[in-house]
Amino acid sequence: MPAPTLPSDTANVLGWSLGLRAHSPADLIDRVETGFSMAALARVRRHAGLDEREAAEIMGTSVRTLARRRKTGRLEAEESDRLYRIARLFERAVEVFGGDAVAADEARLWLRMPQWGLGDETPLAYARTETGAREVEALLNRIDYGVLS
User: Where does the record place the Antitoxin Xre-like helix-turn-helix domain (predicted)?
Assistant: First the structure.
């Protein structure tokens, strides 16, 4: 399956990989509390190159639970918050690696590669918790600013 195309204004839109196009944190918070649609999950999976099992694991849920959510069409608020965590890391990685389709490919690869700055764990493994996700963001910031990581 070919990688999805990136919107031209990725740097200015929160949650673009979810298809949200939120322009303020308040808008994003409201959408998280309402619960993302299953289409948002599908978009992130497509953008970040995650299969259903990987997405469920990082979101702290099961494939069966996601199947039940498909029937209602919506994720719960906590699940949406965890999904946004994945989207946020993917979007930041794309930004750090150049903000284009090539950068998106590099971001997908980087998220799955063990990183010295994370104790040789993968960023996706770290992203299972918010604390771990913040460490991944810190590593991406160091990479962005040229600090040995």
Answer: 27-88
Task: Give yes or no for a contact between 114 and 121, defined as CB atoms under 8 angstroms apart.
Answer: yes
Can you tell me whether residue 14 is helix, strand or coil?
strand
Cα–Cα distance, 149 to 138 (Å, whole number) = 10
Token pair for 50: 């995650």
Burial bucket for residue 8 (CB in 10 Å: 0-12, 13-18, 19+):
exposed
Instruction: Retrieve residue 44's tokens.
Output: 């992130």
Question: Which DSSP helix (H) or strand (E) runs through 134?
Answer: helix 130-144
pLDDT digits (tens, 9 = 90+) for 21-58: 777 889 889 999 999 999 999 999 999 999 999 999 98
Q: Which domain holds residue 22?
A: 10-144
User: What is d(CA 63, CA 114) in angstroms, rounded to the nearest whole number?
Assistant: 25
3-state helix, strand and coil shares in percent for the chain, rounded to the nearest 5: 65, 5, 30
pTM of this structure: 0.86
Spatial contact of 20 and 31, defined as CB atoms under 8 Å apart: yes
Residue 147's Cβ-side half-sphere holds a number of Cα atoms within 13 Å equal to 9
Residue 22 has φ and ψ, to the nearest 5°, of -75, 135
Are 123 and 101 in contact by the 8 Å Cβ rule? The answer is no
